[in-house]
Amino acid sequence: MTAVSEGPVRVLIADDQALLRGSFRLLVETAPGLTVVGEAGDGAEAVELARRERPDIVLMDIRMPEMDGIEATRRICGAAETAGTRVIILTTFDLDAYVYGALRAGASGFLLKDTPPSGLLAAIDVVASGDALLAPSVTRRLIAEFARRPEPARRPASTLDGVTDREREVLTLIARGLSNTEIADHLSVSMATVKTHVGRLLAKLNARDRAQLVIAAYEAGLRSP
């Protein structure tokens, strides 16, 4: 996935608590290179604003009235007009089902609301640059949630038709949580080669980012929970 375009990173804030929205706005707007383009008090409003403003990043609460953050994320990430918008889920609820649901809906990051301000700004920078914010703790919760799901709910390995043996190897390493640099060292190839493989995997598996690739690897049986 490519990074956002030149200029300030445009951020939309979606949370049903006005005080939190105000706090997030103040934090984002005082950071260099970031600007807030709107605030939403529920999921439906977030979807509407995202379609109108085309933000680079949406800071999305999960539990909101009218429409929750996971459904709003699914609609934003699934719509052609907001295909370039990336969603960071912010929640007070550190629950496995939320992690899995949010990532399956297309979210590129997942943070708890008690994350320090510097951590939130760093997350915006990571996701805006085109990568996914998938910390080891989140990966563990994702794997644990996937392990509890029945076998019929998992996609068969045939979904990897068209993926080369080398790409499968790279996908497996991504699912282990390795960075591009670590993958390059492990396979004794260049960074450019790894980036090419990752790009092809994103295209072939119709994945938005590394978070989606991790899910695809587990659902295809390349890794066992």
From TrEMBL:
Keywords: DNA-binding, Phosphoprotein, Transcription, Transcription regulation. CDD domains: LuxR_C_like (cd06170), REC_NarL-like (cd17535). It comes from the Bacteria. SUPFAM superfamilies: CheY-like. The keyword RNA-binding does not apply. PROSITE patterns: HTH_LUXR_1, HTH_LUXR_2, RESPONSE_REGULATORY. Pfam families: GerE, Response_reg. The modification 4-aspartylphosphate is found at residue 61. Residues 156-221 form the HTH luxR-type domain. Residues 10-128 form the Response regulatory domain. PANTHER family: TRANSCRIPTIONAL REGULATORY PROTEIN NARL-RELATED (PTHR43214:SF24), TWO-COMPONENT RESPONSE REGULATOR (PTHR43214). This is Response regulator. It comes from Microtetraspora fusca. The lineage of its organism: Bacteria, Bacillati, Actinomycetota, Actinomycetes, Streptosporangiales.
